[in-house]
Amino acid sequence: MMEQTHQPDYKNFYELMLDNLPDGVYILDAAGNYIYANSAYIHLIGLDRAQLMKTNVHDLLSSNQIDICISDIVYREKRRVVMFQDVTIAGGCAHMPFRQLVISNPVFGSDGSVQYILAVCRPLETLNSFYNEAASSEINGTCTIPLAGDKSVSIVAESRSMQHILQLARDIADIDASVLISGESGTGKEVIAQYIHDQGRRRDGKLVVINCAALPENLLEAELFGYEKGAFTGASSKGKAGLFEVASGGTLFLDEINSLPISLQGKLLRAIETKTIQRIGATVSKKVDFRLISATNENLLSAVKEKRFRADLLYRLNVIPLELPPLRERREDIVPLALYFLDHYNQKYNKNKQFGVRTLESMEIYDWGGNVRELKNFVERSVVMSAGDYIDLTNIHSIAASHDRRLPESNSHRAARLEPPWEEWLGEDLPLQDYMDRCEREYLARALMKYKTSYQAAKALGTSQSSIMRRKSKYGL
Fold first, then answer.
1. Cα distance between residue 413 and residue 436, in whole Å
2. Per-residue pLDDT tens for 114-145?
3. Which secondary structure element, helix H or strand E, spans residue 231, and what is its range?
4. Max CA-CA distance within the chain?
């Protein structure tokens, strides 16, 4: 008898999925009546679900609980509309008026008319917090370096170039001069910014992060400088502090500063030079005490030549330059990083994966165009998708081609030397146990030579550090 596959109750299933979204979601019919709202939207506006299901969106407009009926535009123009909307419903969003971004999508019937509207809502104040949450979830580095104040951050420090950068970061940590961190995408610019902040006297203040490429120009200005009540249509009646103010006493990190619109660059320059900011709509300036760190993934001199970036702003940002090398130029960090990520994802997915020697060699000679980010993603994919506990080269699709190419001569000779002298040992009539001991000693000696420390060797060989130390003592290594 064929086993029947259990079919879920799709109505309840989809409602459950939508209820677990962090964004508010609602559906209107062709007349503007609410026919669905998820829990996030109910919480956002503060109305009872049963009450909302008896409400027409025009009721909210006529009672001034919303300032614009976006659905009317969608019905009229038959297209998706993305707009800001002010909400003043009593009880909504922690019982305070708020401004939200609404993405309103038409759902068409067979006759081409708009039958429903599906809308997604998010309060403006949460837009950058989602970015910060994602950024802070990034895993970076391998070697835990103690910081002042009993703090620690994990940063790769095996290569001489990274050790030099970390030393420079420590030297400038207490200096409030602007720092410009440059490097390819995925090299860990935000990690270094965090390291500088944690090392310096501002460590007890906030590190406020904003990606200049993540927000549109008008929203970016409001996020950076804040605004007064009534500064523009839809502005919160309470006004809003900008990130310069939030970072006062701490550090402001502007990522992808190369994406900052030219129209905002003059205002940023003034804020850096005078340590004062002026909210949108304000008539007076405010003093702010912040340390500025910026990052770019392109050559800003080229942007200056192309008239996309102000030369005077570049000079103010680039007081202390830090250039992070790509991963292909610090290959000593590849294996330690890979092993760190391997340990992390083994724990995350409750696995016990290990890399084979050929896989580690392939990783060392691969160019990693996406740098640490690509390596991290590769390790996660390997842990999730590889069969068994041993990640051999056959499991590594993304770099298989690089291994098929001829290895550098030094790697080829090293691989050849790993093969024991079979004929020589057989000529000695070597007992099997002695043969196994010799193999183990040779392999362990090579591992210790390759990984420098017993801890790293234990990670690579899939055993404990104490086991490595016992065998070192046994074989006199």
1. 23
2. 999 999 998 866 655 554 454 444 433 334 33
3. none
4. 98
